[in-house]
Amino acid sequence: MHMTPEEIKEFWRDFCERHGLAKDLVAKGEAKIDADPEYWADQTMWRLRDALSEPRGKRK
User: Fold this and answer.
1) Contact in structure between 11 and 44 (CB atoms under 8 Å)
2) CA torsion angle for 1, 33, 40, 25 (degrees, to 10)?
3) What are the sequence ranges of the domains in the chain?
């Protein structure tokens, strides 16, 4: 499933809201997403894959 840059930014905004991050940080993140949305869409997927590949005792 392809994510649009706006969908990625929505996910980012929701994350920031859940964690109480400052609005300036939200804006900086949106600028990074705009610069390379494909990279940022894949970020958590790589971390998930890595977490699943680690030995059971090291998973977070």
Assistant:
1) no
2) -130
3) 5-46
Written as six digits, the tokens of 2 are 């392809």
C-alpha–C-alpha distance, residues 16 and 28, integer Å? 12
Average pLDDT over residues 25-52: 90
Task: Give the predicted TM-score (pTM) of the model.
Answer: 0.74
Sign of the torsion formed by the C-alpha atoms of 40, 46, 14 and 6:
positive
Q: Are 29 and 14 in contact (CB under 8 A)?
A: no
**Mean pLDDT within 3-28:** 95
Structure tokens at 23: 């609005």
